[in-house]
Amino acid sequence: MRDSGQVLLVMVKQNEFYTFPLLEFYMMINLYGEEVQMGLDLGFQNVEIEGNALTIVKMLHTDRQDRYEISAYIMDSRSLSENYQRCIFRHAPR
Protein backbone atom coordinates (compact mmCIF):
# COMPACT_ATOMS: atom_id res chain seq x y z
CA MET A 1 0.00 0.00 0.00
CA ARG A 2 1.39 3.35 -0.99
CA ASP A 3 0.60 6.89 0.12
CA SER A 4 2.19 9.83 -1.70
CA GLY A 5 4.60 7.50 -3.47
CA GLN A 6 6.04 5.91 -0.33
CA VAL A 7 5.40 2.30 0.58
CA LEU A 8 3.53 2.32 3.88
CA LEU A 9 2.29 -1.22 4.22
CA VAL A 10 3.20 -4.53 2.66
CA MET A 11 1.04 -7.60 3.15
CA VAL A 12 2.37 -10.98 2.13
CA LYS A 13 0.45 -14.20 2.36
CA GLN A 14 2.47 -17.39 2.40
CA ASN A 15 2.09 -19.25 -0.87
CA GLU A 16 -0.02 -22.25 0.04
CA PHE A 17 -1.12 -25.16 -2.08
CA TYR A 18 -4.82 -25.16 -2.82
CA THR A 19 -6.43 -28.17 -4.44
CA PHE A 20 -9.14 -25.98 -5.95
CA PRO A 21 -8.01 -23.01 -8.08
CA LEU A 22 -11.26 -21.18 -7.28
CA LEU A 23 -10.42 -21.29 -3.57
CA GLU A 24 -7.10 -19.59 -4.28
CA PHE A 25 -8.99 -16.93 -6.26
CA TYR A 26 -11.31 -16.31 -3.29
CA MET A 27 -8.30 -15.97 -1.01
CA MET A 28 -6.73 -13.36 -3.33
CA ILE A 29 -9.94 -11.33 -3.46
CA ASN A 30 -10.18 -11.47 0.32
CA LEU A 31 -6.62 -10.17 0.59
CA TYR A 32 -7.55 -7.02 -1.36
CA GLY A 33 -10.44 -6.43 1.05
CA GLU A 34 -8.11 -6.89 4.03
CA GLU A 35 -5.69 -4.33 2.60
CA VAL A 36 -8.44 -1.79 2.02
CA GLN A 37 -9.76 -2.24 5.56
CA MET A 38 -6.29 -2.10 7.14
CA GLY A 39 -5.49 1.18 5.40
CA LEU A 40 -8.72 2.67 6.72
CA ASP A 41 -7.97 1.38 10.22
CA LEU A 42 -4.55 3.06 10.07
CA GLY A 43 -6.12 6.35 8.98
CA PHE A 44 -4.67 6.56 5.47
CA GLN A 45 -6.48 8.94 3.09
CA ASN A 46 -4.80 8.45 -0.31
CA VAL A 47 -3.60 4.97 -1.19
CA GLU A 48 -2.50 2.76 -4.06
CA ILE A 49 -3.12 -0.92 -3.52
CA GLU A 50 -1.00 -3.19 -5.68
CA GLY A 51 -1.43 -6.88 -6.32
CA ASN A 52 -0.33 -9.43 -8.88
CA ALA A 53 -3.80 -10.77 -9.72
CA LEU A 54 -4.63 -8.89 -12.92
CA THR A 55 -8.12 -10.40 -13.18
CA ILE A 56 -9.06 -9.13 -9.73
CA VAL A 57 -7.63 -5.66 -10.41
CA LYS A 58 -9.70 -5.48 -13.60
CA MET A 59 -12.82 -6.52 -11.68
CA LEU A 60 -12.16 -3.83 -9.06
CA HIS A 61 -11.99 -1.20 -11.84
CA THR A 62 -15.23 -2.13 -13.55
CA ASP A 63 -18.69 -1.14 -12.38
CA ARG A 64 -20.21 -4.16 -14.04
CA GLN A 65 -21.78 -6.67 -11.69
CA ASP A 66 -21.55 -10.26 -12.79
CA ARG A 67 -23.39 -13.33 -11.61
CA TYR A 68 -20.45 -14.99 -9.88
CA GLU A 69 -20.26 -15.44 -6.13
CA ILE A 70 -17.03 -13.45 -6.03
CA SER A 71 -18.98 -10.33 -6.98
CA ALA A 72 -19.89 -9.84 -3.33
CA TYR A 73 -16.21 -9.71 -2.38
CA ILE A 74 -15.45 -7.29 -5.20
CA MET A 75 -18.37 -5.05 -4.23
CA ASP A 76 -17.25 -5.07 -0.57
CA SER A 77 -13.72 -4.00 -1.51
CA ARG A 78 -15.06 -1.30 -3.84
CA SER A 79 -17.47 0.10 -1.26
CA LEU A 80 -14.75 0.16 1.42
CA SER A 81 -12.41 1.96 -0.97
CA GLU A 82 -14.95 4.79 -1.32
CA ASN A 83 -14.07 5.82 2.24
CA TYR A 84 -10.69 7.09 1.01
CA GLN A 85 -10.11 10.46 -0.61
CA ARG A 86 -8.29 8.52 -3.33
CA CYS A 87 -7.86 4.77 -3.69
CA ILE A 88 -6.20 3.23 -6.74
CA PHE A 89 -5.92 -0.49 -7.45
CA ARG A 90 -2.89 -1.38 -9.56
CA HIS A 91 -1.51 -4.54 -11.09
CA ALA A 92 2.06 -5.30 -10.05
CA PRO A 93 3.45 -8.14 -12.19
CA ARG A 94 5.50 -10.77 -10.40
Automatic annotation (TrEMBL):
Molecular function terms in GO for this entry?
Answer: nucleic acid binding; RNA-DNA hybrid ribonuclease activity
Q: Which InterPro entries match?
A: RNaseH_domain
Q: Where is the RNase H type-1 domain?
A: 37-94
Pfam families given in the database record:
RVT_3
What name does UniProt use for this protein?
RNase H type-1 domain-containing protein
Q: What is the lineage of its organism?
A: Eukaryota, Viridiplantae, Streptophyta, Embryophyta, Tracheophyta
